[in-house]
# Entry
Amino acid sequence: MNVPRANTFVLPSCCRNGKDNSGGRVCGIDVWLARKFLQAIGKPSLRVILWDGKEISGAGSAAPVAMLIRDRSALWRLLKNPLLHFGDDYSAGRIEIEGELVDFLETVYRSMARTRKFQKVSDPAAYRRNQPNLNSLPEARRNIHHHYDIGNEFYQLWLDREMLYTCAYFPDPDCSLEDAQIAKMELVCRKLRLQAGQSVVEAGCGWGALARHMAGHYGVKVRAYNISHQQIAYARQRAKTEGLQGQVEYIEDDYRNISGKFDAFVSVGMLEHVGPDNYRELGSVIDRCLTGQGVGLIHTIGQNIARPMSPWFLRRMFPGSYPPTLREMMALFEPLDLTVLDVENLRLHYAKTCRHWLERFENNRERIREMFDESFVRAWRLYLSGCIANFDIGSLQLYQVVFSRSSNNLVPWTRSHLTVPRAVS
Amino acid sequence: MNVPRANTFVLPSCCRNGKDNSGGRVCGIDVWLARKFLQAIGKPSLRVILWDGKEISGAGSAAPVAMLIRDRSALWRLLKNPLLHFGDDYSAGRIEIEGELVDFLETVYRSMARTRKFQKVSDPAAYRRNQPNLNSLPEARRNIHHHYDIGNEFYQLWLDREMLYTCAYFPDPDCSLEDAQIAKMELVCRKLRLQAGQSVVEAGCGWGALARHMAGHYGVKVRAYNISHQQIAYARQRAKTEGLQGQVEYIEDDYRNISGKFDAFVSVGMLEHVGPDNYRELGSVIDRCLTGQGVGLIHTIGQNIARPMSPWFLRRMFPGSYPPTLREMMALFEPLDLTVLDVENLRLHYAKTCRHWLERFENNRERIREMFDESFVRAWRLYLSGCIANFDIGSLQLYQVVFSRSSNNLVPWTRSHLTVPRAVS
# Structure
């Protein structure tokens, strides 16, 4: 396997020097600025500690979480655009967190949601704001390459053994990540009511685990699309090792180029990268490729209220991404008279999945630091912690939506076919 | 019980004479008009038989369903506005159907959906079209009175013994209507995860069965709102008979006047009468009355594509009604950051429920004719058959939507609490 050592996570030059920059002596204006910052984010129960040890409190001086700001420029940047610069300065080590990073983020997110500036108000054009890249064909390739093509070996250090980088399903909260990812694949297969001999198309297949599970456990033929070169290479290799190459075809191409007719359409964790401007086109792809009695499933991160993602997340982690509201998702179905059969919200399962990932990530941080560098480790820690916090407090959702054509009367009568046992491997 | 003999279903004067009007001799222009009519509705597999026996075929002369038009004026009216006049002239006996009425309607609906004029195109203002009445407070009262206050004895002839006039839930397709309605109430209670001692508010309680079930089987306190005077009177009487008057309070008032805080909000079969213009207000009522850890459920007829109901249905059956799309329903949740936890589509269960109702209705048609008149019997037969047809072909859906506040992390982990056994009574 080809593991690139280059760090594709690039910090802006102003943040590169890290802790070498001394903040100088704290003066009255620094304290005033720190108070302004706390005020701007709704006075959370949080202590700000400046570079010389001076402490400023939001609500309650005994707050269990604190934010250490290591120099004056970081403090200034926080006031200017906290949603971008907190992430960059945390990554560069100019900001440190005392206490649990997830607790800190939840405290701040909850507090910001109560302020006028950051309050949760639906914005009909949310998905077009702060988007450095849209998702035309070449841009979609660039966006996907940015996150997914940084080395399979990196992801192997903290994902489950089947390499699923999407929300798991925990039949009970204590089950392992390995079991929960298999249970998720089972749940998806049962929602699709797969039967041997059927054909399935998968839009956005990651490292190909679901396609192999469907082929291996349900005897279906799968065509799985993905534009990440490294993921496709890995998926093909594993299908070969497992003797599934006759049943699973991995295609390095965009979902817009899907052709053929299939008994099932499935997409797990791709819609976040599609963008609402392209939902009608994705809907047309579904309409073109689904048989009359076919069933479809889309599994995606979503949100209650249409709001843009934070600029840090969009610039450093997932360019071009947007988690839709259920209302926005309906643009996939309504114009084509597709019937929504079932929506399940697995938000708390995604918080738990991310907790497993973060734990494994931390257990391997020395190795990851060697592969990339310290700022990469810190950025990914922040990203995974931010996901946990957002799913915990309900700022992000996870929707599984099952659909069919409106004329399909062979849909399941009840949900009795869906029960997934605790361990299904 | 007070049973009004007056028929509140009033046909326009042009239709009152029924079969007395002879159509005269069929001439060339009548045949041409019948062909035009068939063409306008997409040439379905259907025979039109004119008043002298002359037959004109749509697609296929051996079509199993035929439409007998008894006079020339009915033929003219069909061409002018089939969506209104078919219903009125069928009710008046100027149009008869050979073969099964449901089959006839499904044939025609499917054919119309293929034509340009009647094709399914989403209309953002659908719910404002063809609406003779909107749903301000006094109009809502008039609209509800029109359908629900025509005598409890009438509804007792064809509803189940608990008097539920909403979609039942058939754990298996063969279970009885009585069992299926109890299973529906169980499903709703389980989705709400009711626990003894909790408080519940019900918006639009019909004859009060769900409120009594929740109080009697789950030990919760219920405040149930309805603006139908006859339904409230019946509900109070039954609660008294069953010794539940201390636990269930039936309030003759509009949902907009709900006050207090409740652990659960439930509304089964009311949203169809609310109208999307009032969803934000209903959302505010929910936001006002739901506790922090509260759970809500809305059960409503819906549709895939935003389209107005037929003018006949709106004028003669349900003034002011509109079945929303899921997109439109989100106006209840998105502005208030409410989280949708679960959506289940019970479309085929409603087709089956309506089949049970129609069968019971037909078994009691002599009695109903005595209570009202023949045109009432025919109009209600058409209405119930039309419902079966629309749920069968997927023009109508039945959504159960479960929701909570976004910050509620005590929501169920999986759906394992939902399994409803075959017979739960």
About this structure: Chain B touches chain A through 46 residues (CB under 8 Å). The radius of gyration of chain B is 23 Å. Chain B has a mean pLDDT of 90. Chain B has two domains: 13-113, 127-418.
